[in-house]
């Protein structure tokens, strides 16, 4: 009998298994993949996520893999340009990193195993086991081996948007909205652009950031109704978008850029929150909560809520409070802590700004001090209620001399204040 079985061992499941194993619990972690293994991803780890890696004693290991630090960010939205970097975090982190998932996920799986978790790679879950409506374990097989059954006090699905655990327990979506766009990305030589996140007129975007082996990830985004047209010739489509968003970078891509790997298309799922706990089960990472990759918060949120869930599961396993209380608190806290990021991501990932966000970001671009706060907001270091606070925005508009008839203090309907 295990204390916990974790299904999925990438950026949510592996840290969760590691943290619980470090607390002395008997943990089994399974994944259908074998590592190192790739998966579609923004790669982007915010300073808040790096702070967690540091607290887990894994940040130095990531840095040692040769992933380059990024210390200046470039964010544009049509003619709005915001450049800079958040102030260092409380623990001194002054950079972001964008590691290949072949590197990051292997590092996390190895850390879970080193902590004492039993890890079975190449394991496919065929079904959960139930006693009435309570999950009591699972069965499945490693590779072509015989079917095996495992029992646990708690089974946690960290197995992504198409979670087997979520499907088998009937976890319902209680908040959601349709995905707006598609993404194509690949890896390029000769693209030394630093970190770029540029959204242009015509509802299209390109982004680029450095990753392992001297390569840069270059990604483009358009509305989903243009997916079929784009995939017919993604090289030409990517070049066209970069040309249209920023002709200078388009010329640089044409002159020196060379794609070295196949494209990864992302027709990502809709934005959603699923019920993420029940008798004998819980969900973490994209299994329970997913949002558009536009703001790059997937990995950091996976870390953040793996930590939260591990702390609360520990309370129940140690006898402080029953799972009925701790798992309900986990979902409430996850939703409350992620609410502002979730709303912001849904708003700006449409590739066109509402009058409210246009006025806020345009005024931000005119203030070096508020630009730092913007990157602090993006990094998870500056509180959203202060960045978007009515008094703070009123002061910003006044300081930069923003036109009175375009000053918006609330998200409601874009009525000028």
UniProtKB/TrEMBL annotation:
Gene Ontology molecular function: any one: FAD binding
The reply on keyword Nucleotidyltransferase is no
Cross-referenced InterPro entries: FAD-bd, FAD/NAD-bd_sf, Geranylgeranyl_reductase
According to its UniProt record, this protein's enzyme class is oxidoreductase
What the entry lists under Pfam families is as follows: FAD_binding_3
Q: Where in this chain does the record put each FAD-binding domain?
A: 2-337
Q: Which UniProt keywords apply?
A: Monooxygenase, Oxidoreductase
Q: What Enzyme Commission number(s) does the record list for this chain?
A: 1.14.13.9
Q: Which PANTHER family match?
A: CONDITIONED MEDIUM FACTOR RECEPTOR 1, GERANYLGERANYL DIPHOSPHATE REDUCTASE
Q: What is this protein called?
A: Kynurenine 3-monooxygenase
Query: What gene is this protein a product of?
Result: kmo_1
């Amino acid at each position: 009998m295990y204390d916990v079985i974790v299904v999925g061992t990438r950026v949510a499941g592996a840290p969760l298994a590691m943290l619980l194993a470090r607390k002395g619990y008997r943990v089994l972690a399974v994944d259908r993949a074998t590592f190192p293994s790739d998966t579609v991803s923004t790669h982007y780890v915010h300073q808040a996520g790096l702070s967690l890696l540091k607290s887990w004693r894994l940040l130095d290991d990531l840095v040692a893999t040769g992933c380059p630090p990024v210390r200046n960010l470039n964010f544009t939205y049509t003619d709005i340009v915001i450049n800079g970097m958040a102030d260092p975090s409380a623990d001194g982190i002054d950079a972001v990193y964008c590691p290949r998932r072949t590197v990051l996920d292997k590092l996390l799986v190895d850390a879970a195993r080193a902590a004492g978790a039993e890890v079975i790679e190449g394991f496919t879950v065929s079904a959960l086991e139930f006693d009435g409506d309570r999950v009591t374990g699972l069965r499945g097989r490693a590779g072509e081996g015989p079917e095996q059954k495992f029992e646990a006090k708690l089974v946690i699905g960290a197995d992504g948007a198409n979670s087997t655990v979520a499907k088998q327990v009937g976890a319902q979506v209680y908040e959601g909205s349709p995905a707006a766009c598609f993404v194509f990305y690949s890896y390029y030589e000769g693209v030394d652009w630093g970190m770029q996140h540029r959204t242009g007129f015509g509802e299209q975007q390109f982004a680029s950031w450095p990753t392992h082996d001297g390569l840069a990830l270059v990604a483009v985004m358009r509305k989903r109704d243009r997916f079929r047209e784009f995939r017919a010739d993604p090289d030409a489509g990517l070049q066209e978008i970069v040309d249209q968003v920023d002709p200078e970078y388009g010329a640089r891509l044409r002159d020196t850029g060379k794609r070295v790997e196949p494209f990864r298309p992302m027709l990502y799922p809709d934005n959603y929150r699923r019920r993420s706990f029940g008798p004998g089960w819980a969900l973490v990472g994209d299994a329970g909560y997913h949002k558009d990759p536009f703001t790059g918060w997937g990995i950091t949120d996976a870390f953040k809520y793996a930590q939260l869930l591990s702390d609360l599961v520990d309370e129940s396993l140690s006898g402080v409070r029953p799972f009925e209380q701790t798992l309900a608190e986990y979902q409430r806290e996850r939703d409350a802590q992620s609410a502002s990021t979730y709303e912001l991501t849904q708003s700006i990932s449409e590739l066109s700004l509402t009058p409210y966000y246009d006025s806020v970001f345009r005024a931000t671009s005119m203030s070096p001090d508020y630009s730092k706060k913007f990157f602090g907001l993006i990094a998870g270091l500056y509180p959203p209620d202060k960045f978007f606070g009515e008094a703070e925005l009123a002061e910003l508009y006044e300081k930069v001399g923003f036109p009175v008839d375009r000053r918006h203090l609330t998200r409601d309907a874009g009525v000028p204040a």
